[in-house]
From TrEMBL, chain A:
Keywords: Cell membrane, Electron transport, Heme, Iron, Membrane, Metal-binding, Transmembrane, Transmembrane helix, Transport. Residues 5-224 form the Cytochrome b/b6 N-terminal region profile domain. Pfam families: Cytochrome_B. It is found in: Cell membrane. One of its GO terms (biological process) is respiratory electron transport chain. It comes from Cerasibacillus quisquiliarum. The keyword Glycoprotein does not apply. GO terms for cellular component: plasma membrane. The main subunits of the menaquinol:cytochrome c complex are a Rieske-type iron-sulfur protein (QcrA), a cytochrome b (QcrB) and a cytochrome c (QcrC). PANTHER family: CYTOCHROME B (PTHR19271:SF16). The lineage of its organism: Bacteria, Bacillati, Bacillota, Bacilli, Bacillales. GO terms for molecular function: electron transfer activity; metal ion binding; oxidoreductase activity. It comes from the Bacteria. Component of the menaquinol:cytochrome c reductase complex. This is Menaquinol:cytochrome c reductase cytochrome b subunit.
UniProtKB/TrEMBL annotation, chain B:
The main subunits of the menaquinol:cytochrome c complex are a Rieske-type iron-sulfur protein (QcrA), a cytochrome b (QcrB) and a cytochrome c (QcrC). GO terms for molecular function: 2 iron, 2 sulfur cluster binding; metal ion binding; monooxygenase activity; oxidoreductase activity, acting on paired donors, with incorporation or reduction of molecular oxygen. InterPro entries: Rieske_2Fe-2S, Rieske_2Fe-2S_sf, Rieske_Fe-S_prot, TAT_signal. Pfam families: Rieske (PF00355). Component of the menaquinol:cytochrome c reductase complex. The Rieske protein is a high potential 2Fe-2S protein. Signal peptide: none annotated. Keywords: 2Fe-2S, Disulfide bond, Electron transport, Iron, Iron-sulfur, Membrane, Metal-binding, Oxidoreductase, Transmembrane, Transmembrane helix, Transport. The chain crosses the membrane at residues 12-31. Residues 64-161 form the Rieske domain. This is Menaquinol:cytochrome c reductase iron-sulfur subunit.
Length: 224, 170
C-alpha cells in the first residue's frame, strides 16, 4: 500500500533523487559509534537538532493556551500547567529542553573546536554556528519572560540592563527590545512573545538550513 | 567602446527596470512594519508629574528614610497604579535629597544599611553593589554610576517627587 503510494508519486514527480540527496549517504567509519565508541562525540550536533525539534513542537502546542498579555499570561501558564491534561508534561519538555539544547550546543561546539573541524574549508559553517548560538540564547532570553512571574520579570530587568551597557546605543537598545524606556510591561511581553515565537524561529530555520546544506556540500571532516 | 553613443541593451534596460520596481516593492512592504517596530524608540519621553509622597518636610532627617507612594502609570494600553520608592534625607548643606533605590548596576533594589558589614551605605544584595549616603557608587563594587536622583519640590510643607534622573542631569 505505502509502496504503491510512493510509486504513484514517484512516477509523476521523480522524488527518488531528491530523497537520495537528503538521506541516502554513507556514514564514514570514523564517525560511527558502532565502530569506535568514542565517535559518540559526533552525535551532539544531531542531538542539538533533536532538542530544537522538541522545542518547536512543544512550543507550538503551548501557544494553544498561552496569551501574551500581562493580565493573563501567568494565569494561562498556571492553567495549562495544572488543569490541562499533559500540559505539565508539554511545558516540562519546553522548560527543560531550553536548558538541554544549550548544553548539547556547547558539547557540539567543543567537539568541533577540539577536533579542529572548523578549519579550512569549514570556516563559514563555524560562523553560521556562532550565529545559531546567539539565536538560541535569544530564544532562551525572550522565552524566559513569557510565564510573567517574578523570576521572569527580574531576569528581564537584568538582561535588558546588560543590553543597556552597550556603548552609545545602549538606551536605544533597551527601548527597542523592551518596547518602553523604563517599564517592563505590556509592550515588553508582546514584543518578547513576537520575537520568541516568530522572529527568532524564522532566523533559526534559515541558519539551520545553511548549516546543513554546507555540511552536505563539504562532508563531515576526516578522522584525526 | 566605439565613438558612437553608449547603447543600453534591451537586456540591461529590463534588468534595471525590474531591479528598480522590485526594490520599490520590497521597500513598500518593509517600510511600515519597520517604522512600527521602532515606534517606542521615537516616542518623546514624558516628563513625570510631581506626586505628593505623604512626607512632611519637617520629618526629613539626615538619616535616609524610605518613602513609598503611588502613581498612575500608563504603559501603552495598560493603566495601573504602581508603587514608587525613594530614600529621602537632608544632606550636609541642609538640602533635601531623594534617591532612587534602583541599583545602577543591573536594576535590583538597594536598601539603606542593608548589609551589616557596611553601615552608612546603601547595599544591593544582587552582586554586593554599594553606594555612599549621597548616592555615589563605591569603587570596586559593580555599579558604575551614582544612584539616580528624583526631582523634588515642596508645597505646603509637603514633599513632592517627580522623575528620577542620573545625577547631574536633573
Ligand atoms: C530553541 C528553541 C527554543 C528555546 C530555547 C525556547 C526557550 C523557552 C524558555 C526558556 C521558556 C520559559 C519556560 C519556562 O520558564 O517554563 C519558553 C517559553 C515559551 N516558549 Fe519557547 N523556546 C524555543 C522555541 C519556541 C517556539 C518555536 C515556540 C512557538 C512556536 C515557543 C513558544 C513558547 C511559549 C508559548 C512559551 C510560554 C509558555 C511557558 O512559559 O511555559 N518556543 N521558551
Ligand atoms: S544589580 Fe546591584 S550590584 Fe548588581
Amino acid at each position: 500500500m505505502l509502496q504503491k503510494m510512493y510509486d504513484w508519486i514517484d512516477e509523476r514527480i521523480d522524488i527518488t533523487p531528491i530523497w537520495r540527496d537528503i538521506a541516502d549517504h554513507e556514514v564514514p567509519e570514523h564517525v560511527n559509534p558502532a565502530h569506535h565508541f568514542s565517535a559518540f562525540v559526533y552525535c551532539f550536533g544531531g542531538l542539538t537538532f533533536f532538542v530544537v525539534v522538541i522545542q518547536i513542537l512543544s512550543g507550538m502546542f503551548l501557544t494553544m493556551y498561552y496569551v501574551p498579555d500581562i493580565e493573563n499570561a501567568w494565569k494561562s501558564v498556571y492553567y495549562l500547567q495544572t488543569q490541562v491534561a499533559h500540559g505539565q508534561i508539554v511545558r516540562g519538555m519546553h522548560h527543560w529542553g531550553a536548558s538541554v539544547v544549550i548544553v548539547m550546543l556547547l558539547l557540539h561546539t567543543l567537539r568541533v573546536f577540539f577536533q579542529g573541524a572548523y578549519k579550512k574549508p569549514r570556516e563559514l559553517n563555524w560562523m553560521v554556528g556562532v550565529l545559531l548560538f546567539f539565536v538560541m540564547l535569544g530564544l532562551g532570553f525572550t522565552g524566559y519572560l513569557l510565564p510573567w512571574d517574578n523570576k521572569a520579570y527580574f531576569a528581564t530587568e537584568v538582561g535588558l540592563n546588560i543590553a543597556g551597557q552597550v556603548p552609545l546605543i545602549g538606551d536605544w537598545l533597551i527601548t527597542l527590545l523592551g518596547g518602553h524606556p523604563e517599564i517592563i510591561g505590556a509592550q515588553t511581553l508582546t514584543r518578547f512573545f513576537a520575537i520568541h515565537v516568530f522572529f527568532l524561529p524564522a532566523a533559526l530555520f534559515a541558519l539551520l538550513a545553511v548549516h546543513f546544506i554546507l555540511i552536505r556540500r563539504q562532508g563531515i571532516s576526516g578522522p584525526l | 567602446m566605439s565613438d558612437k553613443k553608449k547603447q543600453v541593451t534591451r537586456r540591461q534596460f529590463l534588468n534595471y527596470t525590474l531591479t528598480g520596481v522590485g526594490g520599490f516593492m520590497a521597500a513598500g512592504m518593509l517600510i511600515s512594519p519597520l517604522r512600527m517596530a521602532i515606534d517606542p524608540v521615537l516616542q518623546p519621553s514624558g516628563d513625570g508629574d510631581f506626586a505628593n509622597v505623604g512626607l512632611s518636610v519637617d520629618d526629613i532627617t539626615t538619616e535616609p528614610q524610605p518613602v513609598e507612594w503611588e502613581v498612575e502609570q500608563v504603559d501603552a494600553w495598560y493603566k495601573s497604579d504602581v508603587t514608587r520608592k525613594a530614600f529621602v534625607f537632608k544632606n550636609d548643606q541642609d538640602e533635601i535629597v531623594a534617591l532612587s533605590p534602583k541599583c545602577t548596576h543591573l536594576g535590583c533594589m538597594v536598601s539603606w544599611e542593608g548589609s551589616e558589614s557596611h553601615p552608612d551605605q546603601f547595599y544591593c544584595p544582587c552582586h554586593d553593589g554599594r553606594f555612599t549616603k549621597d548616592g555615589t557608587n563605591v569603587e570596586g563594587t559593580p555599579p558604575l554610576e551614582p544612584l539616580h536622583v528624583y526631582e523634588h519640590k515642596v508645597e505646603n510643607g509637603m514633599l513632592f517627587l517627580g522623575k528620577a534622573y542620573p545625577r547631574g542631569e536633573a
